[in-house]
Amino acid sequence: MTYKAKDYSNLIGMDGFSETLLKNHFTLYQGYVTNTNKLMDLLASMLKEGKVGTPEYAELKRRMGFEFDGMRLHEYYFENLGGKGVLDKSGKLGKKLTEDFGSYEDWEKDFKGTGTMRGIGWTILYQDNVTGKLINQWINEHETGHLAGCIPLLVMDVFEHAFITDYGLKRADYIGAFFKNINWGVVESRLK
Ligand SMILES: [Fe+2]
Asked: What is the distance in A from the centroid of ligand 1 to the CA of 168?
C-alpha cells in the first residue's frame, strides 16, 4: 500500500492563517507523504536484495521516524484545526484537563508555554494509554520526544514554516490564532 496525501483545502479562509501560508504548508505535508512512500519502497527492495546489514539500510531506517511522523503529525494538526476554538469546559475533556492540571487555565498556560520553547518541533497534548493521564509534551523536529503508546489529542506545529509567513517571529501570536481555530470536537473524539 502507499500513503496518500489528504486534502485540507477546507481550512483555507481560516481566520489568522493566510492562503499562502496554508498552501505552502500543504505542499510541505505532501512532501512527507511522498518521502514516506519512497523510504518504504527503498527499504522493501533492500530487504529483498539482502542489504539489511548495510549502513545505507540503517540510515534509511533511522530516517523513517522523521518522514513518517512528519506526515502523520501534520494530519493530526490539520484535522484539529478548522473549528471555532470553543471547548465545553464541563464536557469530558474539559473536566479531564481540570482534573489533571488543576484548571483549564493551567493546562493552557502549560501547553502554550511548551509551544513557545525555543527550537523547532511540535507541542502535543497526549493521553497516557495506561493511566489515562493527560500530558503536554515537546517534540523535537518530528520524531524525538514521543511518549510510547500515548494518544495524541491536540497537535500544534511550531516549526517556523507554520507561522513565519504571517507572524514573522511572533510565535505567541500564531499560537493565539491556532487556539481560535481549534476543533475541540475532533480533539475530544480522540480521548479514550
Ligand atoms: Fe508543518
From this structure: 15
Cβ burial of 188 (10 Å; 0-12, 13-18, 19+) is middle
- Rg (Cα) of the chain, in Å, rounded? 18
CB-based contact 116:171 (threshold 8 Å): yes
* Cα 180 from Cα 81, distance rounded (Å): 9
Task: Give the per-residue pLDDT at 24.
Answer: 98
Q: How confident is the model at residue 154 (pLDDT cuts 50, 70, 90)?
A: very high
**SS3 assignment, position 185:** helix
Give me ligand 1 centre to Cα 192, in Å.
Answer: 26
- What is the CA(58)–ligand 1 centre distance, in A? 26
Amino acid 148 reads A
- CA 159/CA 171 separation, integer angstroms: 10
pTM: 0.97
List CB-based neighbours of ion ligand 1 within 5 Å: 157, 159, 162
